[in-house]
From TrEMBL:
PROSITE patterns: THUMP (PS51165). The keyword Acyltransferase does not apply. One of its GO terms (biological process) is tRNA processing. This is THUMP domain-containing protein. Keywords: Methyltransferase, RNA-binding, Transferase. The keyword Transferase applies. SMART domains: THUMP. GO terms for molecular function: RNA binding; rRNA (guanine-N2-)-methyltransferase activity; rRNA (guanine-N7-)-methyltransferase activity. It comes from Halovenus carboxidivorans. It holds the Pfam family UPF0020. Residues 52-164 form the THUMP domain.
């Protein structure tokens, strides 16, 4: 069993992201000050970092959904093993006397208990520890808690964390005021842009941009813009972070040279209008251009293409002609790399250098890197 010392100068964190994209997100966490970042489970990275990384990740990390501060981990074969992890915690470093909390548990594996059992046992253990340590009972609020304690039980291992992000995942960006029918997750768009890895002077194009998520995330990454999540992250209420650490550190890199050349196109003029509106809310409208164009016909003038193709699932449209013509436009262009999210990569007839299996709902999709 190990309990993490919250007075130490490095803490242990878990970060959640899109399954399959952990290595790219881990690289971003490392850039932001993390070390030893590794995939712990599908969609979950573990790493170490100084406490100040919490504010930095919430301001700049474009690929992470939640940042969880690890409190304790250990082997578990019973509920008692999990509550023993809570007994070892210094509750006053985590919860203020008036702060409410909720426990959420995720369990995978063969156990004699279910997730709700973990939630009530850990909740009770927190109440008991708080009573023993400071004589007060913290309020439980399952709907709108100040802090969420998340417990992960995977086979024989349990990890107790406090969620520094809170109720709402960071993939929900405030800029997305105009929603397209099938928008890609901004965190996934950010990972795709990083997979494309363009040089600062290279032209980046999304020929089927919908409401503009890929170009917006690309511009925000290139310009090192802050994330604007829909809700204030929970870390500001976390007792273990002092005021200095919770103040958002300015992490901006100095960018020299011309602004990035990033463009989006879509056949649907309404999608183009939505993309412009979202870009305005994201504060990157001056950097981006969005135009109406048919990807089957318009020649691709780009060094790098990053796009999310229609799957043809929700509509009856035959996507074969679109895929065939788009692949032809790509082949005749001088684009050096394309990063494409699709459920029908087979229709492109292009050999990927890397293929990352993904899921959207029940649909199996993939990100293809084509060089
Ligand atoms: C999966 S959506 C892209 C979603 C986008 N990544 C977003 O976050 O909103 C596919 C887009 O392809 C566009 N599209 C379909 N056929 C097209 C064509 N021939 N040329 C350009 N765009 C096309 C659709 O209008 C739709 O916006």
């Amino acid at each position: 069993m190990s309990t993490h010392d919250l007075t130490a100068d490095r803490w242990r964190f878990l970060a959640t992201t899109n399954r399959g994209l952990e290595d790219i997100a881990a690289a971003e966490l490392t850039e932001l000050g993390g070390s030893d970042a590794e995939t712990l489970y599908p969609g979950m990275i573990e790493f170490a970092a100084p406490p100040a990384v919490v504010s930095r990740v919430h301001a700049y990390c474009r690929q992470i959904h939640r940042l969880l501060l690890e409190l304790a981990r250990g082997r578990c074969s019973s509920l008692a093993d999990i509550t023993a992890l809570v007994d070892s915690l210094d509750i006053s470093r985590i919860l203020g006397p008036e702060q409410s909390f909720a426990v959420r548990a995720q369990r995978r594996g063969d156990h004699s208990f279910e997730s709700p059992d973990v939630e009530s046992a850990v909740g009770q253990a927190i109440v008991d520890a708080s009573r023993a340590q400071r004589g007060t009972r913290p309020p439980v609020d399952l709907d709108d808690p100040d802090l969420i304690v998340r417990v992960f039980v995977r086979e024989r291992r349990a990890i107790v964390t406090v969620d520094t992000t809170g109720q709402y995942s960071l993939h929900r960006r405030r800029y997305r005021v105009a929603e397209h029918a099938a928008p890609i997750r901004p965190t996934m768009a950010a990972s795709m842009y990083r997979l494309a890895d363009p040089d600062p002077d290279e032209r980046v194009v999304d020929p089927l941009c919908g409401c503009g998520t890929v170009p917006i995330e690309a511009a925000a990454t290139a310009l090192d813009r802050r994330i604007e999540p829909v809700h204030e992250p929970a870390f500001r209420r976390l007792r273990a972070l002092d005021a200095d650490e919770s103040a958002i550190s300015d992490h901006r890199r100095q960018r020299d040279g011309a602004p990035p050349d990033i463009r989006g196109f879509d056949i649907d003029p309404e999608a183009v209008a939505d993309a412009r509106e979202n870009a305005r809310h994201a504060g990157v409208a001056d950097t981006l251009s969005f135009e109406t164009a048919d990807a089957r016909q318009r020649p691709i003038a780009a060094d790098v293409v990053v796009t999310d193709l229609p799957f043809g699932v929700r509509t009856d449209d035959d996507i074969r002609p679109l895929y065939a013509d788009f692949a032809e436009r790509l082949a005749e262009s001088d684009c050096r790399r394309a990063v494409i999210h699709t459920a029908r990569g087979d229709l492109l007839g292009l050999e990927p250098t890397r293929r990352i299996e993904m899921r959207r709902g029940r649909l199996e999709t993939a990100i293809l890197v084509i060089d």
